[in-house]
Amino acid sequence: MTRLIAVRLLWYVGIAVIAFTALALNTPFSVEVVMSAIAIYIPLSVLCLPLMAWLCWSRGLRPSRLPVPGMTSSWPAWLAGALGIAMLAGYRVLADLALAECGFLLVLVAGDLWLARREAVQFFTLAPARSG
């Protein structure tokens, strides 16, 4: 359990480093895009943690065709990451800060989805060992 919490905290520390870097660069892109995307992402991530835990828990209790109980599909994370990167690349073409903000937010959400998927797999491999 400690490893699960440590990885999540390291993810948030990495986002804080990105925020401090954005403030140090002091360019319109970094302050407007990165800081506003992080300001949207942090409450979204913290408020969705109980929902993700409940979804993974209910998925783990059902018999599953997936190799590890509780493992969710990875396609939402891949889709969010690909769309985010495409939006960030579109910023260079269209010079639209809102497009870049949405792209950076989607990249953060994709990272959160991958992390939640990893946490669910680790939890369901640890849970039977602790109960038995």
Question: Could you provide a short overview of the structure?
Answer:
The protein is mostly helical. It contains 4 helices and no strands.
Please give a structural write-up.
Helices cover 86% and strands 0% of the residues. The protein has 132 residues and is mainly α. It has one domain (2-131). It is globular and about 45 Å long. The two termini are 16 Å apart. The mean pLDDT is 76.
**What coarse outline follows from CA principal-axis ratios?**
globular
Distance between the termini: 16 Å
Gyration radius, to the nearest Å?
A: 17 Å
Find the structural class using helix and strand composition. mainly alpha
Fraction in helix: over 70%
Number of helices: 4
Instruction: Indicate the proportion of strand residues.
Output: under 5%
Oligomer category: single chain
Q: Outline the biggest β-sheet.
A: none
Instruction: Pick out the low-confidence regions.
Output: none
Mean pLDDT: 76
Query: How many strand segments?
Result: 0
How many domains? The number is 1
SSE order, one letter for each helix or strand: HHHH
Features:
0% strand, mainly alpha, globular, 4 helices
Record the SSE blueprint.
Elements: H1 2-25, H2 28-61, H3 75-94, H4 97-131
Helix pairs in contact: 1-2, 1-4, 2-4, 3-4
